[in-house]
Amino acid sequence: MKNVTDSFVSLGHWPSAESFGFNTDILATNPINLSVVLGVLIFFGKGVLTDLLDNRKQRILNTIRNSEELRRGAIEQLERVRTRLRKVEMEADEYRMNGYSEIEREKVNLINATSYSLEQLENYKNETLRFEQQRAINQVRQQVFQQALQGALGTLNSCLNSELHFRTISANIGILGAMKEITD
To answer: What other note does the entry give for this protein (predicted)?
Structure first.
């Protein structure tokens, strides 16, 4: 360090240059060269460096502003999408509930219609049974009546004379005619 200060102090004492040569003392020449280079750089490069730094600063600020605007836009878009999602979810729930309600209504309607059809079929069956039963009863009555009539006629024919026979037949024809009118 003493050599550095000695070189600055002894600038006025340099002997006249007898020959041209290089100073090989690194400690003496480097600080001088560095200070000259730094001085020149600071003097001439200050404006360029300031402009470069200002431009870089403006680009960074613009990027930050753009990023902020993009972030705000993304947040707004996200909120719109969330709002729309909530609306769609509510509509889906409503459709789901309406669908379930509609299914339940259709199920109840189908059960009611089937029950009504079964009741009608049961009524038709009962009516058919009553009709067939009544028809069978009427057939049996007619057969019993015909057999009884034939038996009575046979007995009468063997026991009665022709005039009594004629009155009995007339009375029976009248009874049969009255019975026929009642059954029709």
So the answer is: In plastids the F-type ATPase is also known as CF(1)CF(0).
